[in-house]
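ERR on first pass: missing label on line 2. Operator R.T. fixed the label and resubmitted. Corrected input:
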Amino acid sequence: MKIKSQDYNKLVLLDNAVSQERVERLRAAMQDAGMAALLVTDNANKYFLTGRVFTGQVYVPLSGEVIYFIRRPLKLEGDGVVYVHKPEQIAETLGLNMPQSLGLELDITAYSTVERLKKVFSGAEIKNASPLLRQVRAVKDDAALELLRMSGKKQVYVYSRIPRLYKEGMSDIELQIEIERASRLEGCLGQFRISGDSMELYMGNVLAGDNSDNPSPYDFAMGGAGMDPSLPVGADGTLIKNGMTVMVDMNGDYTGYMTDMTRIYCVGPVENLPGQVRKAHECSIRIHRELVKMLVPGTEAKALWQRAEEIAREEGLHEYFMGHRQKAGFLGHGVGIEINELPVIAPRSRDIIAAGNTVALEPKFVIPGAGAVGIESTYFVHPDHVENLTPAPEAIIPFD
Amino acid sequence: MKIKSQDYNKLVLLDNAVSQERVERLRAAMQDAGMAALLVTDNANKYFLTGRVFTGQVYVPLSGEVIYFIRRPLKLEGDGVVYVHKPEQIAETLGLNMPQSLGLELDITAYSTVERLKKVFSGAEIKNASPLLRQVRAVKDDAALELLRMSGKKQVYVYSRIPRLYKEGMSDIELQIEIERASRLEGCLGQFRISGDSMELYMGNVLAGDNSDNPSPYDFAMGGAGMDPSLPVGADGTLIKNGMTVMVDMNGDYTGYMTDMTRIYCVGPVENLPGQVRKAHECSIRIHRELVKMLVPGTEAKALWQRAEEIAREEGLHEYFMGHRQKAGFLGHGVGIEINELPVIAPRSRDIIAAGNTVALEPKFVIPGAGAVGIESTYFVHPDHVENLTPAPEAIIPFD
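pass 2 clean. output:
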């Protein structure tokens, strides 16, 4: 999806019909929220609307022309392109067409930036557009599905090569670095977009043995002590040994739309792993089977959490479900341009599964003394069936 | 700098004296700004104060005990640690000791988060603590210098290996991936912290030939089209050929404190490059020599920009200085926990060079038809001399 040289100066890289359909869905949501206009400043949302990232804002009025206020890069061309050096110049362009109410991404835009924009739109009532944009982006169209499928395909291929990347005597971080390289050579962009800027993670997680039980600063399904206290998450230099599991949960952003996938590896025959490890892994696969049946438009997201927890209890594995020393508060999440999209599969989620949702399910267990088990796959919810975007063997995979 | 297992549960990983001195410098600035208390929520600022990252806030009153409101990870221990699930619980802990005025990081904290905290501290006047924290962090202490030196040393070593990583027929991105791997194996954390969340970049830039003249969405010294419109910056798949330059400007975060360094490489003898390319590279080195003399406490940062521009004009290279089709608005920047710290070396900067500043200078040129030239090095400003944290050969380096 490289920018072709003939398109280099084109602002909107999406197909016209796709771009218009996204704007129309946004406008329907704006209408419901009583929002006369929306000013989009976040990279993920700009990419959603245009198919590229730039510095500037997208102004979407309820009716009338969409205006792209651009600062960088220079020389972009397209309908509605206006170059501005500072947001104050937006007022000059809009003139008397100032909206009565304006949506801004209040959940992610810095306070100072919002205060400055409030002055630019001094007459307008400011409303929070973050929930609305999250809702609209949670439903993926065919153009997004195509990019998701491509990411999934590449991620599955890279994971299939992991047993050959492992060499005896490797540490978790050494294996991770080889997976990073293989991913990048296959086209992984590396960028790991997380909404809100407080969660930090580099290219994903490889967790070996008991390191998976080290609590992380974030609400991640699994922890890891990390290599440095400035980034205390993930691989910590653990030597990979017989009898421990290695969980691989790496970046799947190959196209701007990412998939999310976890598989479990081990040194030596799977039979050498403790029985409880194998049982918990089977339980994760069973939870996938049952939850996929529930990925039907109209289902409450929290029902999926409840069912999964019920199964874990039934099998006597509740103590290890979604972490042991520290537990994650969710077992699945929407994924797309960012890793933490809607719907959220969590006990108190108010989300309802809808057609077009792309959901990563990650029922996982941490078994002290052995490590993390369980798989993660990304599913696309069609009106009448579910498509697995990361289809790959689900059993524990021995390195040799 | 791995967290040692005996320190795993310790909240403050900095030496006590270091931590206290940082808090005292912050308090002196708060006093000047009339701020009765400060609530720190940003990861970079929390790392500055404690030496680790966690989810939660650091509450610094002008006098009295510092309180650490922590949500994750579990089980951290230390004076002043209070576990909370939500910011509203902060009020319960503070009780009657609510401050009259409160500093918040308004330039980076989301609007919704600030509004929520305003309700928690309902009586307090809210002030912007972002400028103050940037000022305090711009002056590095000995503990920070030690980490900066270690990052610089490792970055210099990795750059020395780059000629051996190049193989004939490689594209820019293939070379970048090998440099990423070599950096990671040497301990590079990968995390590239940028204040504000609108600038995105993965592990740095390798720019070959004319790709360096492709405008980027950001105020980066050099551009690049990137591999995908969702991340339109950096390497774009250009095949590395005779007669073009290859600029390497990769992530130098090995310790939580990063250095910033650029060197230029080429295929075949340097003499084969056009004369103007070699002249512009020499000019960059000359600018470094002259600007380092000006890195003296008390100098206006903008004077460095002016002097550099003057030299570029003198040598008839102004058209290519700091970019050609799109120019960067700065030629140097503070660096530390984040890549864009103070002081900023730019035409309208109001910063004054101070002892303890760590400044990356990057006078660069883009020569159409050949590529980018010029070096970047990171300097530490001592009271009476300047220390180059990334000392390495400055000339253009042939791959063979």
